[in-house]
């Protein structure tokens, strides 16, 4: 095993078995990459044949793919047990939920694993405080939340004994944010180019964004709306676009999605709930005007000093009004948002928080 030259903690595995391609999957890969570069020997462990396996290999992140089909899998349990022993894994950081059953059974007295951290990035609504979940989460040694909103949500939903810490460490996005280009200035714009980046599912507000664009068009605003991302509701979105009368660009998944900020004036992200909202923070770091709903983590981001406009939750008319506001006042590039976003979400604050919970 090739050890990290300046390892400050034991060997670590970041686990994400999701077959999807979204924010959580990218976060898992980037987290493994950061930890391997700056903290300790780290592998990303994924399910074979997924987007995440391909993405990690393209970024040359140390990745191990396990071959199994179901959330609870005896095959996965056996593979994980062998892996923990072969690599001397001391720490597990799990991105996900369903596969925790298999992870739980992979930990026995023969494995070297000392810490199991569950990393939370989405708001949960169903209680996990029943006896089954109390047993399932009994081997978890810490809960990692990327916002205060999520920490509150986790304490409410999950069975957490008093001795088990819930800690907050926002994603270390500073390196990624430094690569975000400056947005297209609005001052001389003849067409209002508005961008959405995220999974194409109803919960991200994709239909709300289209409806808001339709209201702007009806009031004479020459708007063009671009979606970057894929998801299960893409076909339904295409049907709505066809009858909306709005000029829309569906670009699908883009490896370098951040480059799109340089070709757009504003960002709309009417999600029904976010644990953090990486793409929203990326948009803020481009200096462009941003609009969202007033729910979950977004009011918290505003308390950091970041400037954007929030519509009442699921109020499409207010969403459209906020977009129209930016079109009419034509604000300059928000340099404060550019600077502050890079300062707030630094690598060091993430590492300092995480080190306390690793063996």
TrEMBL record:
A family per Pfam: Glyco_trans_1_4
Gene Ontology MF terms: transferase activity
Keywords, ordered alphabetically: Transferase
Highest rank taxon of the organism: Bacteria
PANTHER family membership: GLYCOSYLTRANSFERASE (PTHR12526:SF630)
Name recorded for this polypeptide: Glycosyltransferase involved in cell wall bisynthesis
UniProt lineage: Bacteria, Pseudomonadati, Pseudomonadota, Gammaproteobacteria, Oceanospirillales
């Amino acid at each position: 095993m090739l050890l990290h030259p300046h390892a400050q903690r034991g060997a670590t595995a970041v686990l994400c078995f999701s077959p999807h391609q979204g924010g959580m999957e990218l976060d898992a890969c980037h987290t493994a990459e950061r930890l391997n570069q700056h903290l300790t020997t780290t592998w990303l462990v994924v399910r074979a044949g997924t987007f995440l396996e391909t993405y990690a290999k393209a970024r040359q992140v140390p990745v191990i793919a396990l071959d199994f089909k179901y959330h609870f899998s005896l095959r996965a349990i056996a593979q994980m047990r062998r892996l923990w022993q072969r690599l001397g894994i001391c720490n597990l950081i799990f991105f996900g939920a369903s596969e925790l059953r298999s992870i739980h059974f992979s930990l026995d007295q023969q494995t070297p694993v000392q810490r199991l951290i569950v990393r939370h990035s989405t708001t949960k609504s169903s209680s996990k405080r029943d006896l089954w979940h109390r047993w399932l989460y009994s081997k978890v040694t810490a809960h990692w939340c990327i916002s205060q909103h999520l920490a509150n949500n986790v304490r409410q939903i999950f069975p957490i004994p008093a001795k088990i810490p819930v800690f907050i460490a926002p994603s270390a996005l500073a390196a990624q944010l430094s690569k975000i280009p400056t947005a297209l200035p609005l001052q001389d714009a003849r067409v209002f180019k508005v961008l959405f980046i995220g999974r194409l599912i109803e919960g991200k507000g994709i239909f709300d964004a289209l409806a808001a664009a339709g209201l702007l068009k009806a009031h004479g605003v020459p708007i063009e709306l671009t979606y970057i991302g894929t998801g299960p509701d893409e076909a339904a979105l295409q049907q709505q676009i066809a009858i909306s009368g709005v000029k829309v660009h569906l670009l699908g998944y883009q490896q370098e999605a951040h480059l799109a900020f340089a070709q757009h004036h504003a960002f709309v992200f009417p999600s029904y709930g976010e644990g953090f909202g990486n793409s929203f923070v990326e948009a803020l770091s481009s200096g462009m005007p941003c609009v969202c709903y007033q729910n979950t983590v977004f009011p918290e981001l505003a308390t950091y000093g970041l400037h954007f406009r929030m519509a009442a939750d699921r109020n499409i008319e207010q969403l459209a009004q906020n977009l129209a506001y930016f079109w009419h006042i034509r604000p300059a590039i928000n340099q404060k948002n550019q600077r502050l976003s890079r300062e707030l979400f630094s690598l060091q604050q993430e590492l300092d928080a995480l080190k306390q919970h690793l063996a």
